Structures
1.
Amino acid sequence: MKRSRTIELVLMGTAPLLVAGCGRAPPPENALLYQSLQQCVLEGKVSPEVCAQAYADAIQAQYRNAPRFDSLAECEAQFGYDQCHPVTSASGGHWFMPALAGFLVGRALSPHYPYYGWGGYDWHAYAGPGGYGGFSGQPIYRARGDRGEWQTASGDRFGRGLRGPAAPSVAETLSRGGFGRSGAARFSWGG
Amino acid sequence: MDRIDIPERPDWREQANALGFRFHSIGGAPYWDESACYRFTLAEIENDIEGPTAELHELALDLVSRAVRDESYLRRLAIPEAFWGYIRESWLRGDPHWYGRMDLAYDGRGPAKLYELNYDTPTSLYEAAVFQWVWLEQHIASGRFPVGADQFNSLQEKLLLVLGAIAPHINGVMHFASVRGSEEDRATVQYLADLALQSGIEPRRLAVEDIGRTADGRFTDCDDRVIEVIFKLYPWEMMFADEFAVYLPACRATWFEPPWKAILSNKGALALLWELNPGHPNLLPAYFDESASAPLPPGWVRKPLCSREGANVEIVTGDGARVAEGGPYTDYPYIRQAFHALPRFAGRYALVGSWMIGDLPAGIGVREDDSLITRDTARFVPHVIV
């Protein structure tokens, strides 16, 4: 098959496309993003069944993807006080993992647009779902011998390495508006 | 490859609006046109488009590898010298790329010819990845196409693969910037932000014009948060000409697309690709135009090094007919590229946009125009493999 097997969207068609300027109110966050099953049901944007399915998917994804720690202290050192809980698997394994921070409800587009939920998320700690199968056996990037390891601004190395600080830093902005002038007369770049 | 007329889905405009594809019509004229579609065989897709796309991509990245080591390349591309080191570092450090599109002239028979690389700020992504996909799925569901019908379009899966690869190595946050004023640009960026959200990355949207800078030369968003990883739908050559350009080399932000893409979004890359790979079946002869004010001889196309949407392109066909587009990109040197007419189907000129995600060919979108020059008003026509 030469095409994507499924397509899900969260923001498209729900969130306004406006980009608020600095100093103006940000657009409301319309993505269906919930901290709890109860919040999803009470808000009523999708049916309780969709909420329950999305929540169940998120729990499963959390179980699969969340980092595991031998001790509560190690987990809390990374994720913060009261953010971790013990897990005992059916086969008797025992570990600690961060609690589910929330879950997303998106739309699967084929063929009749049912809502579809997936993924535990914890933006500041680790990547969410992943494991997209299908094409994932192929390396996305070819090794090119002449190139080094990519390193992010916070010192993370592409490939394997330490995670940066849990929240991005804040610094005083001296001025704005220094990008965009060259494009002022030229509205789209796509070609 | 052929073009077949098929009925439109009666509610496609409502569906497009509901999915955030609101630029399906531009100035009252259709941009998305599903009154017809292009039909390919699997052999055409795999042998004539997918394979050559992967090969051309390798040639392009080989060119980058050479150019960052040889200043004569960067000089001929008219890239400001102040950013040569920044571009070189970006490549040698291995800054990852996300996506790009190459435009191919292909008629179903001869080898596809590379018209241009749009490797820095390509749009038409959302309609290719999503709306085209929905169109096919619904026509299969309704029985108009057989169950085995397919499409060369794994764009969303592969865009997510890249995010999945980078997500564990960034800070959980990625900024997404577009310039104010373009619905199409906003939708493209919003789509990528959507995919980031699905990948466990918190997307923060901002306008390119609102990027701030700190005393120590970092860039910030509206809430004074330091920008560490950012996607920008704004060309590098314009960033280099802007006031904040001076802060780029020390800003410590990771950009998508990365600075080394400045080499490939430049049409001079077409001349350099020909110079390095003369006679390649998928390349057209191309040279830097040393006499840009002289009349163009028959059989040649003149393009500015940096232009978008067909602007400032001039064609003199083999029999001497002249086709030209005006535009704002008059302050750059030019290349000449051998004229190779786009194929004509039902009176329209069709151009195949072939996408690369990471280093993987990932799908196509066909656009057609009434003119030999494909402009921003060219219509997007879906395709099917049967």
2.
Amino acid sequence: MINDSLLRVDNLVKQYADNTAVAGLSFQVREGSCFGLLGPNGAGKTTTIEIMEGILAPTSGTVQYRGAALGERFRAEAGILFQKTALQDFLTVRQTLEMFRGLYDHGLDVAEVIRLCALEKLLKRDNKKLSGGQLQRLLLGVALVNDPAILFLDEPTTGLDPQARRRFWELVESIKAQRKTIILTTHYMEEAELLCDDIVIVDHGKIIAQGAPQTLLRQHFKAVLLELPTEDWTPAARELGLPFFEAAGRVELTTNDLEGTLRTLMQAGIALAHLRIRPPNLEDLFLELTGKDLRA
Amino acid sequence: MKLLTHLRRSAKRLFAIWHARNLEFLRDRTSLVFTLGLPVGIVVAMALIFGGPPRPLFKVGVLGDVVTPASYPFLGERYFQFVPEPREAAAIRSVTRNDLDLLLDLRQRPVRFWAIEDSPKGYMAEKLLLQADSQAQRQPTPGVATRYIDWLFPGVLGMNMMFTCLMGAGYVVVRYRKNGFLKRLSATPVTAFEFLSAQVLSRLALALAVTLILFTGIGTVIHFHNAGSAALLLLVAVLGSLSLIAFGLIIAARFASEEVVNGMLNLLMWPMMLLSGVWFSLEGSPRWMQLLAQLFPLTHILQAARAVTLDGAGPAAIGADLAYLGGTTLLFLGIGAFSFRWRPE
């Protein structure tokens, strides 16, 4: 039981005619933390987050915000950045922020939001003329106008180039620094590892792992990872009996005995000039738990 | 106090949506040009049809054989158009419809004539005739005449109002739902009723502006005379627009397909165009048709508008129509808010 939980999800189920998107999820989100909801495509994370946002009704189960069902207070105190959001095409950035600010009784000054999201140079630009990164910054600004106590970010950096993604991370870090609670879904494990204090990994509508990223890594991996280019992974190497995974032009080996594995490879005459040794990261954990097959 | 605070906050949210919608409309150049260009185009078309170069001031029908100014000097007057009329009864009917300003019967002496007493042109034509021929004898005309354009004009305005109200607000809401903007709004404190009310008020301003342009423009061209109160006519326009916009929003309350909404709106508009008395009166048509027509807001708009403009009716005379329009506005908004969906089903 987490005493300082801001949001509590109990036995959440969402049943559609032909599938069960969410199959009994329960977890809590600590106030002031960044909580990551991770999972492969179709795992049920968007359905889960939309129920948590109060946008979608669950088939059964409850979501409580500050100990009460989602209601007026939640809508006034929540900021949401949907995975896909359209704004009014012919409004400028400033007009959009002013419109959304007008929907709340309390919140930040629009000027403050503009500063927070680095929108100063875009104020007179029409929404439809913004680039992907600029639009995401505006949408983050829209989500911040009410100075939310809890901020939902549903795949906020999907489709952004690396620069824009890093810029967005900086913004989220600055929001985190204000001790706001953030709920993040993302496909980028690097992003989750960087930003999240706690994560839940869901698959087929169920939780398969839950905890702090480093704790989960320690729990699931005692090993290190070795990576080699595929062209160096000779037929002889394939006969060594070492468990390996091959994808995207590289071969990956997981081992608890680094010295022994290296000795075996050297004795087999495998070229190790391009060998890379690294500790496992969240992406490895994600693949370990959800499998490496392509999802629809 | 709590209620006041609630109302103030509700009004604030409503204003925010209303203001943004207006800004969006004004920034959408294509839509703006089309919406405002259309009434201007209609004004121009009407000006071409009913305006143009100087025309004869009076149209006079003539019963009898071919006549010349030599045989009857009045026929030489300038600014008169003399139209031979073969049949007396039909010609008299044309006078009562104001198709003719005056009808002369030259088949006998003294000459007989028919004119509408309260028609300014008929009056003037009669004066000029009697100046030229003091022996001419006035004959009684059956019924009271009304210019067709005066009768049609409220119908044209009402029809345009129907298009502006039904199509505009409905499509905007469907587009918002389809592109996910409504979903975003659903995550804010704004309620469906507030959102729909903002759309109604935004569209109302546009509908009134367009109607005013048409009323002023065409009214000037056709010399339209409003026999009643302009303020009362404005009230009819406001309540009528509100009812029609809210009617359209019922259709747009849950769908995310423009095609579906387009079909449904057409389904509503065509019966209204045909049965609400835009082009012709339903007098003499089957009872069921008349009862059906009474369900349409447009019918009550036109009944009230014509009563004001043609008969000079006051608030009491059109009270039932105004009540129907006000009541349906609230009813349609209520149904719209109840059945409203923020996201596609």
3.
Amino acid sequence: MKKQFNILRIICLIILASPLGLAWLPVDVFKNIVPSSFVESGYFHSLFLSFRELSITLAATMLFAMLLSVMLGYVSVLSMHVGRGFANVLNAVESIPAILVALFCYAPVSGYLARHSSSASTTMSLLVFVLAATVTTLPEAVRSIAIPLTDLYNQKYSLSFRSYGFTKKRILTVLMNTALMRNTLKRVAAGILLKTLVLDCSFGFIIQLGFGSYGTPAHLSPGALIAAHRDALFEGGTPILFWLPSVMLITISVAFLLMLNDRREENA
Amino acid sequence: MTPISLHRFSIHLGQRVLLRNCDFSIEAGSSTVIMGPTGTGKSVFLKSIAGILPTKIFSFEGDMQVNGFNAYSAGRKLDFRAWSQIEQSGLMFVPAETAQVMNPSLTLDQNLALLAPGCKAVIEKRLNEYFSLDFEAFARLYPDEVSGGEMQRITLMILLSRSGNFILLDEPTVNLDRNLRKHFVDFLNKEILAAKDKTFLMVSHDLDFIRKLTLDQAYMLKEGDIERLESLPEMEGYEKPEAKKGATGTAIELQDVSQTYFKRGIFGERTFTAFKGLNLVFERSTIYGITGPSGCGKSSTIKAILRLMDGTKGRILMEGSDLVALKPGETGSDPASFKPFRRRMTVVQQDSRFSFFPDLSIRESFEQIAAAGSAGTLEELTANLEKVGLTSAHLDAYPQSLSSGEMKRVDIARALTAKPDILLLDEPFAHIDFETRLHVMKAISEYLAVHATILVVVTHEDFDLRYFVEKSYDFPELVGQFTKE
């Protein structure tokens, strides 16, 4: 029964997160499903591009932020002095709203973005956004790894394992590979994805409202698409232009929330 | 409403039957204890009533009703909604390792607000009255800043002061020293058992403790069956195991040792002195016992000898070498000059579940431990497991599938297999029933007869002092007045 429930859960997660994968299919695939006038419109093209860019942003941020979080979390527990230093810096970063961090990160490259071609500008914009998203997600991610790891080491395993002659470094490496820490890392990854998704869309929304299609940075995002078609809700508009990306974003968010809430039954 | 009713209920752990076709019920307002040998499944039974046994590891048969609600039906554990109803009906489970219920990232005050909302005043009063503990002094501390004994007292009081009508209490005396145990008996008799407004179901192996409680009935769980006892078993017939001694001579000398540690406070970290002016000599082939109230520094002394603490001052001499000078602080690795001493020391820590890798079997863990140093061979471990009343089958078990008492014995067997020169045992017999305890004591005494070892036992229990320890020290007397800076 439990196995069937788990399979059902995984299927649900795949369905909910599917917009990120479907965006990479050739547009022609949808010609038989969706009215051709809609498929051939610029909106459909923008929808695909925005979700493609979102999936790249999410994947890149998750990989980069997870790598940094695991490293910083591990080092923080390994050395209390280093850990305290990191904690002070990360606490300071956390006190600044994420959207301001993102805007701040764009400031040094705004000239480059304005001067260069569309593809170079998009690549740079993506890199800067991944950096900004990583910075904003890092404090919580590092804390989420360091707290259970510290607890496992200091409260539980350090006395015995150190007395066997294992070094702290080796004990922490072993503990990082335990089922408990693997589940923690999975939840941290889901948290990073969710936070990045929210930041990406709100940032895209604000950039679209502030600069329209002429401004920099060239941040293609479902949030920007929603902002661009916010008038669709008014009389005479086509509400689906607003609701389609909105609903897709909601389903992806629900998938990440489900992953975040995946707390496996702990052993007695 | 019957608080607990079992109909042909069974609990299986793999092939092992822990409870067999059991029909059992208790009346509302009654007080009951379930006794039984270590590893027989007492705690597992209690946890099945609390609904916290993982169905991935344990399987069930038959029916169980808790507080009038179906909890298990035809061997199937009911869903979250059904268990929520049971929780809300007044079920209160108090685990043996009470400290585990505390969230490590919250202060004790925040934990209290989460676990027992609206009960702070009564908890403060009871802690003060029965355990002489001022909760306000601990309120802003985090769980890792409080000693095991203090934590046990605070969490016990928090968990037992919640509002509810059915208390499940699992081995409550494990970390309580002798003095506090008396106060805890007073507390249970006066505040919990006297009013008879709550149903009380406890599992314990501690006969001394059980005898002092005003309980209505006692049961024995043995080999999967629960049998009602007409009277409590007598403690007569226990004989102190005899073993001939190896070589003698001074082995470890503590000279003017003091231990400080850091505590977080609202104005940053502060230095606290756990103890100072400790002068002590441990000779070989003698079983030394260290007793004293919780939090007085007994476990810190063990850690200081093992050189796993910062802030140790004074001299710890072993064969002319000062261990403090060789390793002044704990940096996560040992200097080369200290490594020969490390190989000669073994500890059995308070909670033996954390002496083996969490996701590996005992056999796999032991192979890794053996690879790290001189831990002995698998054959020697198997022989020692048999001496402490276990079998080679336990080698393939995982830590989470063994009871606390079984883990303790596996850990002691592991420690003896390492053939240590210095054997430090921190509450080594907690969770082990008295009969099994004597087998374990005999195994240690036999080891001592062959190896002239320095053996130090930190213990709270009268039984250990009476039947095992040869020379006991009261820790507060050794270090004079308990001081804080």
4.
Amino acid sequence: MTITEDRIYKALEQVMDPEIPVLNVLDLGMITHVEITEGEAVLIKMIPTFSACPAVELIRNNIRSTVEKELGASVTVEIDKEAHWNSNRMAESAKEKLKNFGIAPPQIHNGEAYSEILMHTACPHCNSENTYLRSPFGSTLCRAIHYCRECGHVFEHFKPLE
Amino acid sequence: MTRNEAIGYLLTAMADDALVQGHRNSEWTGLGPIMEEDIAFSSMAQDKIGHAWALYRILHENLQGQEPDRFAFLRGEKEYKCCHLVEMPNGEYDFSLMRHFLFDHAEAVRWEQLQHSSFEPLAPLARKLKGEIKYHTLHANAWITQLCRAAEESHARMQSALNACFPLALGIFEPHPEAEQLLMAEKIYAGEAALKEQWMDRVYNILAVAGLNLPDEKAVTPVYGGRKGYHTEYLQPLLDEMGFVFRMDPEAVW
């Protein structure tokens, strides 16, 4: 079968984030460039969510091995140094998946202070905005911890990032 | 001094600050007073070490520097350019929080400014890191404000931590006239004096709301020396511990 960009994207849909297994690398907006180069080889460029994300190398290897397996082509995965990830890159469909997984999705931001965005994060369990930020840091670099006054759940939130 | 030497000096100083502060933050892992705080300092440790690594990588890839791990762990003490503020032991929580507050606002001002740097690898990194550091200052501001409003004792302890940290924090902005002149002429960054002014304005505004008095700059002696390789007695033991595993087998592949 010939290698097409469409098939590369289909293969990328199978590469899940190791820390949030319901989201793939396309959902997260981590892929910045896909190219079929000379000799039917594939070049993919990606960006990490947080600069100190410990899973970057793992994700990079997973992308390479999955696309190689699906397409039978030689694949190079590079870190894109020109682009930087921000949470507005996350797909709308991904936010729904995140919420169903029990993590509040990041709000769309446009440069305002985080403290204002974080104040009324909707609870993924009961949708109430009667919540407060317990800590801007959580179990992974991309998460914050909130408390819902309505249903009494402590919940995690994928933080907005500029 | 050449242009590249001046850039190397600036990036090494910034990276060494982040690395050493990151290591200090990691010393709260497992010991934080409440779980959220344990997680916060551990997360900030991870961020800081990631930031240091990104800078060491630029030194390596763009300025013919050593491989990042070797540069981070195998240098002699005098080759580090971190300021004394980050070397100090964690002490009590008041000291750790106040250092975190003063240091991270300085980081925020510096990275915001570096978004406009003419040194190409630095500008995109700055745009990324300034967004991450906002969470560090958000955390610091919340604790400074809460503790200062909580009770007399907590207020008094935060004021005494501020008095102890302030001369050390001025050392973040230790001048290096030759390097700064070169870097400013090339529009690589704005220079330490300009960054310090912005930092003072920012921390003053938050401290005022918290009811703390920023000591008079003219009445204190800034703690300089770190940028020139003169360090406190606390750095060498920290380096010994931080690089212990790496030095057991520097050729190991991780």
